[in-house]
Structure formats: structure tokens, C-alpha cells
Known about the structure:
20 helices; 0% strand; mainly alpha; globular; 78% helix
Amino acid sequence: MKKKSSLGSTIAVSLTNYLDAGAIVAGASGLTLWKDYLGLTEAHLGWLNAISANCLGAAIGAIIGGVLADKYGRKAIYTYNMLLYMAGVLCILLATSYPALLAGFLVTGISVGVGVPASWTYISESSEVGNRGRNIGISQMAWGIGPTVILILGTLLAPPTGGAGSEGLLFPLVQSVALLFGVTDGDALNVFSSRIVFVSLFVVAFIAWLLQRRLEESKEWEKMKTVNSEHNYKLFTINYKMVKPMLFLAGMYLTWNLVASVMGFFQQHIYETAGGLSNEYANMLSVGQWLVIIATTFVFSMIVDKVNHRWLYFTGVSFAVLAWVMVLTVGITSLGGLLLFTLLWALQAGISVQSFYALWASELFPARYRAAAQGIMFFIVRGLSAAWGLGFVYIYGENGEGFTRAAWVMLALLVVSLVIGTVWAPETRGKTLDEITRERYGDGLGGQS
């Protein structure tokens, strides 16, 4: 496949990452607003996180999407999945009760999960051997651009909340839209800023649906289908060669994602409660973080195919460990502490465990099990992240009084991820998917890569 085609399909598929991270951050940026509007507790917020694109919703979708992508092809996912995403976002837009909001978060999360295994698999299978890491990096840039756009929009639309009492430049637009629905003041007015943010996701999802449904089917999948399209999941339990990479990938990704999922959904809320910022300033600080993430991810995408993966992984997760060491020493109650933590967390997210997970997970399995294997691991990781999110809100407390205790747990999880990924990093750089499959499985596990 020509380089231009590889890059073009990567950009189209990467909109899935934009919408994945965008859904998480759109919910996070307006979390306090929904809490005030519906009179929610921290436990309610924990359930929103648990069933969202951040956790259980994506977990359920991933195991379904992985199986479907291997059985019916990658293109089948792109033909219909964005319609489900738009339905979930529409439910959130119209929500006036907690159950409706919960349902919208769940449907959107399921759609995100359905698309993840197919997108990482498709990008890897359509990439040239020397650009596989680059294309995965580009897809992760979309994962950074989504939150940046959402947070900028959230900042501009922010209502006057918190101690600062300032409002975003476009809050008059929120007032105008709310007036059309007969809402003029109070928490119902403020939450309209979050509704408009979700409108932007609906529009991008529609564009993504138009682009992705035109993609050609993966050549690797078509080649595999001509050899053997039968699926036998007993192979996951009886073939130790497949179990070992699943345990490795789930271990290094789970321990990191337990921390990242909390930060993805609760970061602005933490900044507003433990850090004492207004909604506007919390969003502004997060915008700065995501700009650093995009820049760092760009550097990652340019060098990942050229440098040692083990040490690049070690460098990225080391920034994450340092960020939480800083929290436990300096704290985040001062502006300096908040800025330093935000910078370190941004650097680690640019050289992300998720980038390496997406790359390695798409390399370490044969084509006919590639998406399903990722779906199973994603289900485990996001499912356990849902449970952790529910536990986190009790550790954290209603106003962040337990944040230090939570920080110790975060630090321990990141150290485990650092050790697993650094010690057992696979040597796949510069090899085709066929070569990797033959090295690991020979020619007897379903034939093609």
C-alpha cells in the first residue's frame, strides 16, 4: 500500500480516537455542572464514570467489537458504529434526569469500545512496516486533539462558577441557546454549556461516519479470510503463546489505565475541589496540558520507528511516576504544584502506555484473532477501571479530603506498569506483521498474520 493511502486511512480511522477521548473529557469538563444541575453526589459521579467511554461502556463495546471485526471485517464496524455513538450523544444532549444521562454515557461508551479494537487493528494492518509506529502515534495525536478542542470549547462556554466567578467568552451564546428552551438562570442554564460541547461531538461523529464507511477492507483480513475464517476461542486458553502476550499487555496497560481513567474523567473535578479552581480555570489548565500532549505525541510518532522501544517506554512512564511523586511532596493546592503536575502528566501522556499498547497489541497476535484479542484485553482493563472508579470516589471524598491517600495508590500502580513494560517489552520494531507472527507462532496457528 502506498504511503499516501496509509496516511489517509490512518487519519480517517483516527477520528475514533478523537471521539473516544472527546467523550471522556466532554463529560469530565462539565461534571461539576451536571452534579449541581441534577443534585448528584460523588457516588453518582462514580457511576457515570463507571459506565462511560472511560470504563465499563467501552469494555462491553470492545469485546463485542473485537469479535465482530474479526468475523465480519474491519469495515463492517466503520459502516455502522458511528450511528450508535450519535445516538448516545443525542441522549446526553436531551437528558434532564440522572437515568437519562447515565444511559447516554453508557451507549456512547459502548460505541467507543466497539471502535477501538477495529481502529488499532486497521491502522496496523494498513501501515508500511517502517510507518506502523508512526501511524499509531498519529492516531494517538487525535486522542490528544479531541480533548484539546473540547476543553477549549468548554473554557469559552464556561459559566461563572467557583471562587473566581468568571465566565467564558462565549457564555452569552449559552444564554441565548438556553433561552430558546425557556431557561434563563440557575444550574439549568449553566449545564447548557456542557450540552453545546456534546453537540460538537455529534457533528464530528457524523463526519467520521461519512469518511469511515468509505474505507476499503483491510487486505490482511481479506487474506486471512481466504485461509480460515473459523473462530475458536479455546485457542486463547490452550495456546500459551497467545496467553503470554495477553497477560503482558493487560498487565502493563491495566495498571496505567487505572490511573489514567481516573484522571481522564475526574481531572477537572479534582482541580476544582482539591485544587480550588473555577470551572473556567480548570479547563484552561487542562487545555495547556493537552497542547503539550499533542506536541509530545508528535515527537513520539516521528521517533518510535527509529529508537529502542524498551527505553522509550521507560522514559514515558517515568514522567508519570515523577508526577505523582510531586503530588505527594509538593502537593497541588498551589498554582506551582498544579502547573508542575500538569506538565509531567502531559509528557507521560505524549509518550503514552496507550500508544505502546495499541502498537504491541496489534502486532503480537495473528490476524484472525487480532481484534478479538484486543477486545478481550480492553474489556478486562476498562471493566476493572470501572470498579476502581467507583472505589476512587470513596477514597477521594466529597471535597477531595482523601486525595493524598488516592495519590499513593496511583503511584504504586504506575511503578508496576513501569516495571512490566520495561522488562518484557517485545522486539518488533522493523518487522512485518507476517514476520512477527511466524516468529511467535510458526505457520500452524491459522496461517496468516
